[in-house]
Amino acid sequence: MRTTMYKRTPYFFILPAYLVFLVFMFGPMIFSLVVSFFNWTGIKSPEFNGLDNLKGIATDSVFWLSVRNTLLYSAVSLFVVVPLSLLLALALDSPHLRGRLVVRAIYFAPIVTSTVAISQTFLMLFNTNFGLINRMLGVPIDWLGSRTLALIPVIVVIIWRWLGLTSIYFLAGLQGIDRELYDAAKVDGATTMQRFFSVTLPQLRPITFFVSMIILIGSMQIFDEPQILTGGGPSNATRSVVQYLYLRGFTQFRFGYASAIGLVLFIAIASFSVVQMKLRKESDL
């Protein structure tokens, strides 16, 4: 009897975490899945409409524009931020860098700073009338009001915000590499670039996969930066999928349609994750 009680005790300790997950995570996910098949404004009784919401999404030009923007944000995050963060980590790991701890803290600051505060700062920097960017260029460019240029401030904020965190991950990976591997490469006559491609990159493969995974998932759910900088405008030029979900659900009160967008986004993120996992397994073979 006492042995059985001891075996059950750990489950009582982890029970609150599971209850929180069920109530605030799994429950809303199931509710959203069900609502996606209904026409519901949140006030009147929901009306079942089957796949009408998904059919509407398939022909929704604004939705596909938001998909294009989100893919652009994801591509920038993956193919610009990841290489830059690796280069930054190499610089921070250099023994010749003075004040390394201070510099690392400065680059990590964006992660512990509110996204709203960051976006507000860049909102002032890119202001047409008194922004520092235009003062430096000497030209009154309407960064946030142009369909062509509005994406640039959002992309700059994304790069600046993610760069510190991902560089810290790479820095941890660099410090975990066995220095004997570099010594052996030096003995074999390998140059600095050869050591980088033959030792550093292969040893950082798990870190690179992890960073790529979190940054891709995070960028596909981007909301704060374009919402604060441009509100998704002008003319939906910077609107992300999550922004469009918010617009449909909490501005136009089409919760069924918004839930269907959330379902599509969930499937897309899950698919990307599965593909990345398969690529990781194949690369390890």
What separation lies between the terminal Cα atoms? Answer: 48 Å
Strand order of the largest sheet: 1-2
Give a count of the beta strands, DSSP E runs of length 2 or more.
2
By DSSP (H or I, 4+ residues per run), the number of helices equals 13
How much is the radius of gyration in Å?
Answer: 24 Å
List the quaternary state of the chains: single chain
Strand content: under 5%
Summarize the helix and strand pattern as letters. Answer: HEEHHHHHHHHHHHH
For the sheet with most strands, the description reads: 2 strands, antiparallel
Helix-and-strand structural type: mainly alpha
Structural description of this entry:
The protein has 285 residues and is an all-alpha fold. It contains 13 helices and two strands; from the N terminus they run αββαααααααααααα. Strands 1-2 form a two-stranded antiparallel sheet. Helix 4 crosses helix 7 (151-175).
Secondary-structure blueprint:
Elements lengths: L1 H34 L2 E2 L7 E2 L3 H7 L2 H32 L7 H13 L2 H11 L6 H6 L13 H25 L3 H9 L4 H12 L1 H16 L3 H6 L11 H11 L3 H30 L1
Antiparallel strand pairs: 1-2
